[in-house]
Amino acid sequence: MKIIVCIKQVPDTKGGVKFNPDGTLDRAAMLAIMNPDDKAGLEAALRLKDQYGAEVTVITMGLPKATDVLREALAMGADKAVLVTDRVLGGADTWATSTTLAGAIRNLEYDLIITGRQAIDGDTAQVGPQIAEHLQLPVISYAQDIKIDGDKVVVQRQYDDRYHVLESQMPCLVTALAELNEPRYMTPGGIFDACKAEITTWGRADLKDVEDCNLGLAGSPTKIAKASDKVRKGAGVKVTPDSPEEAAAYIVEKLQEKHVI
Amino acid sequence: MDFTLRKEHEMARQLFKDFAENEVKPLAQEVDETEVFPRGTVEKMAKNGFMGIPVPKEYGGQGCDILTYAMCVEELSKVCGTTGVIVSAHTSLCIDPILTYGTEEQKQKYIPDLASGKKIGAFGLTEPGAGTDAQGQQTKAVLDGDEWVLNGSKCFITNGKEADVYIVIAVSGKVEKRGRISKEISAFIVEKGTPGFTFGTKEAKMGIRGSSTYELIFTDCRIPKENLLGAKGKGFGIAMHTLDGGRIGIAAQALGIAEGALETTIAYVKERKQFGRSIAQFQNTQFQLADMATKVQAAQLMVYRAAVAKNTQKVYSVEAAMAKLMAAEVAMEVTTKCVQLHGGYGYIREYDVERMMRDAKITEIYEGTSEVQRMVISGSLLK
Known about the structure:
The complex is a heterodimer.
Chain A: E1 2-6, E2 9-11, E3 32-34, H1 36-52, E4 55-61, H2 67-76, E5 80-84, H3 94-105, E6 112-116, H4 127-135, E7 139-149, E8 152-158, E9 163-169, E10 172-176, H5 188-196, E11 200-202, H6 244-257
Parallel strand pairs in A: 1-4, 1-6, 4-5, 5-11, 6-10, 7-10
Antiparallel strand pairs in A: 2-3, 7-8, 8-9
Chain B: H1 7-34, H2 39-47, H3 66-79, H4 81-101, H5 104-115, E1 121-124, E2 140-144, E3 147-157, E4 165-177, E5 180-191, E6 197-202, E7 214-224, E8 228-229, H6 235-271, E9 273-274, E10 277-278, H7 283-312, H8 317-342, H9 352-363, H10 370-382
Parallel strand pairs in B: 1-4
Antiparallel strand pairs in B: 2-3, 3-7, 4-5, 5-8, 6-7, 9-10
Helix pairs in contact in B: 1-3, 3-4, 3-6, 3-7, 4-5, 4-6, 6-7, 6-8, 6-9, 7-8, 8-9, 8-10
């Protein structure tokens, strides 16, 4: 079985989100990680590999720096890695991204494609299903469990209060939720091998059956008019004193604590 | 001279850091309080390859270098000194001598299970009357047919009762050198469960309290003749060379403890308010932090240099001794100052620095006290 996992390098929001003066994300000032939903998708693929035997290929579109997440994936146990990078692909929205990834995937053999549900920097949840559409594959989104049954994949699709069990003939595409599993750690030896491994790098010329008008910023129908930081307020503390006097005493105490009075 | 870490070392550090934060830190206080060996953590480390980092792949290890192993001990020790020393004693004191001095059969028999963490390793040199003075050994090994018969005891053995494979140093005869009779010392591999091999008291310790520190007792303990490690009579050299490597592990442990205490304290001084402002705003705090960070960085460079030397040099005793001396003394100084910066709270068990200060002390004592390191270093200067 051949499995392709699409992964994305995203800014790590754990240390806080940083913006450029124009409102766009200051990616350089933030650490980069593998998108959590994608990492769960990779773990699902690696478990299928452990259980049934499979070749797992990870693919990402991004800057050359995105090789970091590909190496991480290799260190976790993926077999091959592909980086799709080209200046003309920059500034892509979900349409141009999915067109690009589909164009790259057309060069590869696969039985199953796994993507994350959505990336924490865009939260669109569109790229996975769009890739399926470009490749004319069935798609099952929001997978909380993935099993293989012969030439079929059996997936539990999560809803708020229930889940559906869906079955699809392979090849097909499944989008994974971070809740799907607890991704494994890399191994030290895996890291050393991953750093020596060759990463296939493709540019625009390597994409199959795509048109320039559907790529990069120029090929993106979505335009970001404005981006701004949301001012977040703290959760606050709710107290219910028994009397107005107690309430006043509480407020005075808090103000004194903060040396306001 | 390049001080930039290679990509694989950066990635490995991140791995160890994530593992330490997620899997080790939440248990550190409990492990200290209950003095229970963190078996579950060791199993997780085994699953992730941490028990055989510098072991070649052909013996089931990870095929990484000593620097990666030192970084693992460092990151684990940042959050839990106990977990750091478990990996250090297992790797440096048991796997390393078998890899260095073992026959191919011994390597095939023991290393894969040790490197995968299926089995844990330990090392027995110290005796009640022979710590620093290794010639004071009393434990005897007598060849009887196809078996060595061991009698005696070893004390303060790390991973004591939890280990499966032990390197044991014992007196195997007498040799005459320049007209003087001295003890002939040899090294042996002893497996847990061998008749005549039992455990004495568990030591109640000041720090690294989750580490299993036991007395090993040998009473007519018969082991196969082929369990002699290295040549007969070469045990003293094997023990000393093993400790050279072990010191890099302990230096990394000390470094980690110092770094952990410093990180914790930096966060604390920003939060803690006195006289209407955070104590980080007082120049005394700032200067103390600056001094500590400088010393920690110096220790780190020395530890990493010693780790690289073990990979690239045949003899690295001085580098290892200097790294351990420096890192251990920095760990003790830094943790003591961190407790002081925490004020009263630093003396309370709820705060990590209290444990870190207790854990730091042993790094100045075991695998050669700071005084022994000074002997090794000065010996190389005056020879």
